[in-house]
Write a structure and sequence with these properties.
The protein is an alpha/beta fold. The chain is built from eleven helices and 17 strands. The structure holds flavin-adenine dinucleotide (FAD). Flavin-adenine dinucleotide binds next to helix 1, strand 2, strand 12 and helix 11.
């Protein structure tokens, strides 16, 4: 067992999802010596769209065109919501810093800073989002102006159907057409996978062949939509090259998860966070944490190859919910397994869910999580921080149901920022 006792880091971030990744970026930007530990988490399921606040109040499904106005309403209606506890300026600054990181890492996002965009889902419905990868942005205008548009179906690809999208829009988007083509080199295959296709399209000859197969069907189309398969590593360049060959803008639409946009985020984080100087323990878990008398922690990190220990002054827990295993549920209730922190939750399991799955009021279990003080430190039964040097961020936090409010990434990034700012000040 390798015990790194001699090096006490400023911070260990537990979690490599959106909250953990954002926290690692913010910590590195502030010069904190940082390690990050985690398995892939929910990020692999991400559509690529980055939501801030799309719906409020969710009971009547009100779609927000302006997330900033929505945040003011949220603060009034639900002051305990983690986004409601942060000043809008803090949220804005957090997002700006995070987008600068993505841009510098080769995965630029586009947004209209003042309002949400309406974007297409793989089912052909729309959803409000705050920002979208550059490779998806031409779709926002195409949808808004109902431009003459050609959507591409690829034979053998599951989890995406241009024909279904067109059927949903029908007469509401009269100049939306679809065509089904064979993917270059797929003649002998009955089933295709988005990651493999995306990697193949990074080869210029495959991209040129795809363009050649689309071109005869362009006709009056001024924009072309495809499933999100335009490269894993350098999607911007792949999309630009295809647009040039077709002589019209192109845009991607997310496929059903897991998909390529989630892979891009995962790889962008793991490659570029390491370049910022963060020690990354990828696909590993923190098995145990031992608090020390001086307020620091010793963390045991393990994978199939063995154990390692790291020593840090502060820990930021961004372990996610049930999928990431930051929270666990059993007959006794919902637990936070690593530190044994109290979890805000309904008094009994019977109250977790309402009778109807689609009840517009949502389910109490989805609002379970950690309560924190204003410095993002998890609270104990007495309402004071359990550990003075432990912080939390992301979907593990209580009093939020990010899926219904469409606020997943915004909540993760803004709370990570607030936690790292507190850590920097406390340091
Ligand atoms: C299907 C799906 C679609 C989504 N679509 C969108 C979307 O369109 N727009 C949007 O904004 N957001 C979307 N999201 C949400 C978003 O991607 C984030 O997942 C969400 O905001 C929560 O992020 P998180 O970092 O808090 O948690 P997670 O992403 O769950 O990350 C938790 C991390 O903690 C790690 N962890 C837990 N315990 C330990 C431990 N003991 N040791 C080490 N590591 C540990 C896990 O391995 C994981 O890395 C979607 C999520 C899903 C599931």
């Amino acid at each position: 067992m390798n015990v790194l006792k001699e090096q006490k880091l400023d911070l260990v971030v537990i979690g490599t999802g959106m909250a953990g990744a954002a926290a690692a970026v913010f910590a590195a930007n502030r010069g904190l010596t940082t390690a990050q530990v985690g398995e892939t988490g929910e990020i692999i399921f991400a559509s690529g769209y980055l939501d801030l606040l799309g719906v409020h109040p969710p009971e009547n499904g009100r779609i927000l065109s302006d997330p900033w106005v929505g945040l003011v309403q949220l603060a009034r209606d639900e002051p305990d919501h983690p986004l409601a506890r942060l000043a809008p300026d803090i949220i804005r600054t957090a997002l700006d810093e995070f987008f600068r990181f993505l841009e510098a890492s080769g995965l630029p996002y586009r947004r209209d800073a003042k309002k949400n965009a309406q974007v297409l889902t793989p089912l052909g419905t729309t959803k409000p989002t705050y920002a979208a990868p550059e490779t998806m942005w031409a779709g926002v205008k195409a949808l808004q102006d109902q431009q003459p548009c050609l959507l591409i179906d690829i034979r053998g690809l599951r989890g995406f159907s241009a024909r279904q999208i067109a059927a949903v829009w029908d007469t509401r988007w009269p100049k939306l057409r679809t065509v089904t083509i064979d993917f270059p080199g797929s003649d002998h295959l009955t089933e295709l996978y988005t990651e493999t296709m995306a990697r193949q399209l990074e080869q210029p000859q495959n991209l040129a062949e795809l363009a050649a197969r689309i071109k005869p069907h362009l006709k009056d189309a001024v924009v072309v939509g495809l499933p999100a398969i335009l490269g894993v590593r350098n999607s911007l360049a792949v999309a630009a090259a295809l647009a040039e060959q077709l002589a019209v803008p192109v845009f991607e639409i997310p496929t059903m998860p897991p998909g390529v946009p989630g892979l891009r985020l995962r790889d962008t984080f793991s490659e570029n966070i390491a370049q910022l100087g963060v020690s990354l323990y990828r696909e590993k878990r923190v098995q145990a944490v031992r608090p020390e008398s001086d307020g620091a922690f010793v963390l045991t990190i393990a994978d199939h190859a063995g154990e390692e220990m790291i020593h840090a002054w502060r820990v930021l827990l961004a372990g996610g919910r049930f999928l990431g295993k930051g929270l666990q549920a059993d007959q006794a209730g919902i637990r936070e397994p690593l530190f044994g922190l109290p979890v805000y939750q309904p008094l009994s399991r019977r109250e977790w869910h309402r009778h109807y799955f689609l009840d517009p009021r949502g389910h109490a279990v989805n609002r379970a999580g950690l309560e924190t003080d204003q410095r993002m430190r998890p609270l104990g039964e007495k309402g004071t921080p359990v550990f003075r040097n432990l912080y939390a961020a992301g979907s593990i936090l209580a009093h939020q149901d990010w899926m219904r409010r469409k606020c997943g990434s915004g909540l993760a990034i803004a709370t990570a920022y607030a936690a790292v700012e507190a850590i920097k000040m406390d340091g």
